[in-house]
TrEMBL record:
Claim: Metal-binding is one of the keywords in the record: yes
Organism listed in the record: Roseimaritima ulvae
EC number of this enzyme: 1.1.1.262
Domain of life according to the entry: Bacteria
Coiled coil: none
Protein name: 4-hydroxythreonine-4-phosphate dehydrogenase
Gene: pdxA
Gene3D superfamilies: Isopropylmalate Dehydrogenase
Keywords on record: Metal-binding, NAD, Oxidoreductase
One Gene Ontology molecular-function label: NAD binding
Length: 313
């Protein structure tokens, strides 16, 4: 049996991406053939410093680093380089050279300093692949969440919500969880406002005008879905036992409970792309970069999920 090729962009060279990549690779060699997109010298230095083996897998370096990397420092060169790693991984997937890509953590400030016109991976992936509409999903054994809106300020969230955007999120959540787990998928949808609007008492009627019609349409399509539920009670243990995936209206509504329950194990998945993309669910952790303190569990889980989705269309 031929193992699938998976491209792994190592993330910002000055962060924990190189370490978690090095630690994860030996644990996934039985399920895939990794291709690391990053800087060989940085990987060699981190491996030597932490007493880790440099894996005998292909290492592809698109360039971008013109000076030695200082761990933990936000640097324009590192931003430029990490952006190039993601571009290389995406292009390999679009060309059909790999079954999926796994992205390490980037430093958004470094991207901005380098003139990268995207606030993060999700927006870059959408533009580079030509995807019409994408959603961010964070998933772990204990909890999974799909976000209707992502990297925007709270004041912008209500105007970005529509029946179609909520309905599309429900559909994508349902379809993806079926691919991951199979069987019936139960979707729980959160309201936007406290107490899910309290019948119009809070907010501008978003629950009645937007969220509920989307839920009703999803139900007519045969999706097992409930809501809108008050966000402050939607994530109780009892509700989680009856839910396979949550649809959340904004970034922190989903990520606060998810990272509280599954910080080391959750995986970021971009839904709606023509390629498979997973990612660690954490940042660059500059304060512990290259020190040997970083957990690589999220990277391992991201690679495993990329293999599963890449071999199970």
């Amino acid at each position: 049996m031929t193992l699938p090729d998976i491209a792994i962009s190592m993330g910002d060279p000055a962060g924990i991406g190189p370490e978690v990549t090095l630690r994860a690779i030996p644990e996934v060699l039985a399920i895939c053939r990794p291709q690391v997109i990053g800087n060989r010298q940085v990987l060699h230095t981190v491996a030597e410093r932490l007493g880790l083996p440099l894996p005998s897998v292909p290492i592809v370096d698109p360039g971008g680093l013109s000076q030695p990397v200082v761990p933990g420092r936000i640097d324009v060169d590192c931003g430029r380089a990490s952006y190039g790693y993601v571009i290389e991984a995406i292009d390999r997937a679009l060309a059909g050279d790999v079954a999926g890509i796994v992205t390490g953590p980037i430093q958004k400030e470094a991207w901005h300093a380098a003139g990268v016109p995207f606030p993060g991976h999700t927006e870059l992936l959408q533009q580079r692949t030509g995807a019409a509409d994408v959603r961010m999903m964070l998933t772990a054994a204990t909890i999974s969440c799909v976000l209707v809106t992502v990297h925007v300020g709270y004041a912008q969230v209500p105007e970005l919500l529509s029946i179609e955007s909520v309905l599309d999120s429900i559909r994508k959540a349902h379809q993806t969880m079926q691919r991951i787990r199979g069987g019936e998928t139960r979707v729980t949808v959160c309201g936007l406002n406290p107490h899910a609007g309290e019948n119009g008492l809070f907010g501008d009627g978003e629950e009645q005008r937007i969220i509920l019609p989307a839920i009703e349409q999803a139900g007519r399509e045969g999706i097992s879905v409930v809501g809108p539920l008050p966000p402050d009670t939607a994530f109780t243990a009892a509700r989680r036992a009856e839910t396979d995936v949550y649809v959340c209206m904004y970034h922190d509504q989903g990520l606060i409970p998810l990272k509280t329950l599954a910080f080391d194990d959750a995986v970021n998945v971009t839904l709606g792309l023509p390629i498979v993309r997973t990612s660690v669910d954490h940042g660059t952790a500059m304060d512990i970069a290259w020190t040997g303190q970083a957990s690589h569990h999220s990277m391992v889980e991201a690679i495993r999920l990329a293999v599963q989705l890449g071999t199970n269309p």
